[in-house]
Amino acid sequence: MSLTNQSETFSVAKRVQSIRHAVRGVTEMLKSEHNAWVHLFATVCVVLAAAVLSVNAIEWCFLILAIMAVWVSEALNTAFEFLCDVASPDFHPLVKKSKDVAAGAVLLSAIGAVIIALIIFVPHIALLL
Length: 129
Ligand SMILES: Nc1ncnc2c1ncn2[C@@H]1O[C@H](COP(=O)(O)OP(=O)(O)OP(=O)(O)O)[C@@H](O)[C@H]1O
Hints:
This protein is mostly helical and 129 residues long. The protein has a single domain (33-128), classed as Orthogonal Bundle (Helix Hairpins). The protein has four helices and no strands. It has helices at residues 12-32, 34-52, 57-87, 93-128. Helix 2 runs antiparallel to helix 3 (57-87) and helix 3 (57-87) packs antiparallel against helix 4. It is globular, with a radius of gyration of 19 Å. Bound molecules: adenosine-5'-triphosphate.
């Protein structure tokens, strides 16, 4: 919402338009970010493994939260990178720190997701052995 349209009345068409913008953002991330392809591959693997191992509803919830945490942090990191590139196309030590910290958020969420996946999948796999 811009500062000029604060008194705008609620419009379903506008909300639908907002969702379209958001979908375009996800599509843009999938097109431009190679890391997103890795997340997509990992997401497919985790969902398939969860289905094959018949994890329960609570385990599904944790897996979905872990997957979402990675995607949300990647999306915010991508948005941050775009903004940094506009604000400072040339090298700047603070941009370096900012981008590295944003990338660190993705790394931390991915590490958490791997730990959650191990906690959930290892007992299921052990039962099969
Ligand atoms: N304008 C800049 N000033 C300083 N350092 C930068 C700048 N742009 C990028 N960097 C450094 O280069 C690293 C990689 O930046 P980049 O924007 O390519 O992100 P990436 O996630 O590693 O790459 P990609 O998103 O293409 O996979 C950043 O983490 C940062 O350390």
